[in-house]
Amino acid sequence: MSQPDEESGLRIEGRRARDARRHSHEAMHTVFEVYALHPDARYAAQAAEAALALTQRLERDLSRFIANSDISRINRLEAGEATRVSLETLECLVIARHMFEVTDGAFDISIGTGLSSIELDEDALVVRATQPGVRLDLGGIGKGYAVDLMADVLEEWGLRVALVHGGFSSVLALDGPVDGEGWPLTLSDPAAPARVLARLSACQTSIGASGLVKGDHIVDPRTGEPVRGRRAAWVAAPRPATRGQAAADGAPRLAVTAVTDALTTACMVMSVDEITALCARSPGLEAWVLEDHGQDGAGEAGLRHFGGMHSDGPVALQTGDA
Amino acid sequence: MAGEDGKDKVAPRTTEGQRKLDRRDVLMGLSTVPALGLFGYAWRKQNQVKQAAARAAVAPREAAAAGDVREVNVALLGAGAQGQVLTEAMQRIPGLRFRAVCDIWTEYNQRRVVNTLKRYGHEVNGYVDYREMLDKEPAIEAVVIATPDFWHAEHAIACMKAGKHVYCEKEMSNTLEGARNMVLAARETGKLLQIGHQRRSNPRYIHCHDKLLKEANLLGRIVTVNGQWNRAVAADLGAPDRYAIPQATLTQFGFKDMHQFRNWRWYKGLGGGPIVDLGSHQIDIYSWFLGSNPTHVTASGGLLYHDPKTHEWYDTVMVIYDYMTPAGPAKAYYQTQTTNGSQGYFETFMGDQGTLLISESELNNPGSIYRDPNAPAWDAWIQKGYIGAPVIPEAKDEEEGASGAIADVRESAAPDRHKVPVALTDPYHQPHLQNFFDAVRGKARLNCPAEVGYESAVAVLKVNEAIESNTRLAFRPEDFKVGGEA
Amino acid sequence: MMAETRASHWAMVGITVMRVLVGWHFLYEGLAKLTADSWSAAGFMKQSRGPFAGFFRWLASDPTMLAYSDTITMWGLSIVGACLILGLFTRLASLGGIGFLMLFYLCNPPFIGYFYTIPSEGSYLIVNKNLVELAALVVIFATGSGTFAGIDRIVHGLWVRKPRLARA
Ligand SMILES: NC(=O)c1ccc[n+]([C@@H]2O[C@H](COP(=O)([O-])OP(=O)(O)OC[C@H]3O[C@@H](n4cnc5c(N)ncnc54)[C@H](O)[C@@H]3O)[C@@H](O)[C@H]2O)c1
Description:
The complex is a heterotrimer.
Chain A: E1 10-12, H1 15-19, E2 21-27, E3 30-36, H2 41-62, H3 70-75, E4 82-84, H4 87-102, E5 118-121, E6 126-129, H5 142-156, E7 162-166, E8 170-173, E9 183-189, E10 192-202, E11 205-211, E12 218-219, E13 226-227, E14 230-238, H6 256-269, H7 272-281, E15 286-292, E16 301-307, E17 315-319
Helix pairs in contact in A: 2-5, 4-6, 5-6
Chain B: H1 23-30, H2 33-57, E1 72-77, H3 81-90, E2 96-102, H4 106-119, E3 125-127, H5 130-136, E4 142-145, H6 149-161, E5 165-168, H7 176-189, E6 193-195, H8 203-215, E7 222-230, H9 247-252, H10 258-262, H11 273-290, E8 294-302, E9 316-325, E10 328-337, E11 345-351, E12 354-358, E13 368-371, H12 379-383, E14 417-419, H13 430-440, H14 450-469, E15 473-474
Parallel strand pairs in B: 1-2, 1-4, 2-3, 4-5, 5-6, 7-10
Antiparallel strand pairs in B: 7-11, 8-9, 8-15, 9-10, 11-12, 12-13, 13-14
Helix pairs in contact in B: 6-7, 7-14, 11-14
Chain C: H1 9-35, H2 42-46, H3 53-61, H4 63-86, H5 90-107, H6 129-143, H7 151-159
Helix pairs in contact in C: 1-4, 1-6, 3-4, 4-5, 5-6
């Protein structure tokens, strides 16, 4: 799945946001960052470090490039073979499978090799293959999932004013830097980052982004054909109210950034009607698609907006060319 | 180019089209067909050799006879970062039944591991005091210990005396005395004591030691060794405020405060600093691969960067060991520093025939062997699958995975880097734990028993001593042995 | 029908040997790519230099075109190779081979001042082995070596009823 996240077209803007202390770490072929505001800088740094340490652990389970990861072991399974996986891997697979269904196959971690031939035994944490040759790639969901878990860690440490992101393609905003206001974010054309298309104020909101740089392409897993006419897609969804210490008690996590991460990939390949229907079905979901009317990013581009007519969605301050 | 003035100098040829084919035409016509047959033959042979090499390279999977594994009751003592990694790895080993988890940080680490284990279907009880656990859980047969180094001796010895087999994380102990007592306890009780130098069970390291060095002697005479573990600066570990441990508990278990509890590695009397924490893994490999223990150590180190108020041990250490190997003298360099992560961690063994570069990581430097231009050819070892075919350096901007993306109709000359074709396909600590539980079931011998862990501890703990005294220190062969008396 | 330049008998034998060798090389290059796990010309084309670099990079960046070029290269090399060995449709095969080599040459020409990251086993200035092999194919094309020793000779005998140009 081609997802150059350097050009997600999503940015933080404003001075208030820049005052927040930033901590970063490289994993999963991207840079994860934690922006946090806390009176005790040392404490915030330790919390950020604890959150960032998670990315490395998750990468060891989820990366298909690491020979002894859970995903690599799944990818090597012959028909009838099974392997035990970590809680996190299983949870990620469960979300991914759900997203496959919700998007009618437009988001497919098996890139068309047959997600259905992978059976998940959620009680025993076992993954079984009914057919050989399935190849999973969690590139389109793993980062978002990591961001969700990192946010849980920050909350565990009592850091509420924070923003976590992985390469700006998976962003989760907790409470904003100023009372009652969210984190100021911009959506812009990945081909011309200076061109701001929309401004958002995000608070307890997750935003996923997919953008293409010139010459790159994204393949529709349903047809195997490269998709044209889309330059970028963004999906936002409200973060469900936190359940305090629920995460530590092993209750299922509502990993909203994993979801928006998956949906942006899907929005790059789904038809306008499909996206409209998806947003109608999912209260709070909001999506933007930057359409490419010309050839190769040269021509006109138009921003389409879907959903978000619900009170608890993120507040789009402005839409249109700024 | 088709020169019309060219005369047909070829011996009698058809001059009129209507003529039937003669025998000569047919013979000449088919004369190059055998070349295609020859090609087919060569192609098949070539593929057979390649397949044989690939087959040989696939490490024989230890057939875990799922049917007849006896269930082993297990407890975890120390549920911190490493305890959690070991717990995860153990979920992939068949036939383990977790019974108890002991950790003094009840609200955080203990609760987390208990919950994880419940999710995996284990009914476990949590304990703060390991003695209570040993009293109340008689069914436990094996204890996996991942507490801070200064607790290892007490914990391991008590467990063995209570009749349990023990898997104890490295460093075996922060003192030689502790390590020695652990060896003696293992002997006395007859219980198994595996020390957590997990590279000893890593299939790649075993392959390099057994096949490449011992059997094929690909490096020739090893004269120098180089290795490092460099880490970038990182914030000290902390803890969420709301999960702070009461001071009374901290004091009871030997910690001054929460900061020391989280960063025990840096404190004298608790840990041994980076050289012990990181170096011990790799210095253990030096001795294993060289087939002997060092004779001398020279070291320099200091606290050059970190805050001395919260860091007692050296953040930077450079060591040179002298070895008298069965093949002759050798010197080994090792460095660890915690201010710059350049090149990460690896070990390099240099012989007169070649160089082996290896690390535990499956991502960086997982294993390469370089042939010295003067060494005999290695084709036979490639065919046996011991090493990979020479690696052709890839073009810079190539996509990963697209191997040999060279459309040129020429084959390129072979530079002589070969991959070590054995990868760890299980989680990092699983093979070492598997070896331990196989031994518990009487099906294997420990890969790192107490005596081996002790030898490694002697070599490593001496470094801090050498830095302090600022002199070259000698080892006597008997230093590495534990006699009958403590 | 095209006139053929004929060399002496032994020269023709030599050219035939050369044809079989070049064909062998093409066939192996083609089959090796066909049987490789995931061969693609993308890497080779992406680092193209020289006057046609833009074209090759475009080929490599467009997934549809890349898939075509990969297929054509793999099968083309194999078929050209087999034909050259057998002396079947020798002229057509030589032309095809010349085309391929021309593309390879132009994609990464060893022009003055170019440095490549793809390793090469020799040193080249303007002339490289692609060009030499290309010249060999020109000779093979010109002499129609398949009608001397190759299936073309049988094909000619069977189907080509028209009288050849009269020879002295
Ligand atoms: N083999 C390896 O690669 C590797 C890697 C990391 C750590 N280790 C080793 O594992 C051990 C633990 O390291 P860590 O990084 O997990 O440290 P940690 O500080 O994260 O965890 C230690 C845990 O032990 C608990 N504890 C401390 N004293 C205790 C006591 N008396 N009784 C019960 N529980 C107690 C603490 O509450 C904590 O949860 C060390 O010996 C370390 O050297 C090995």
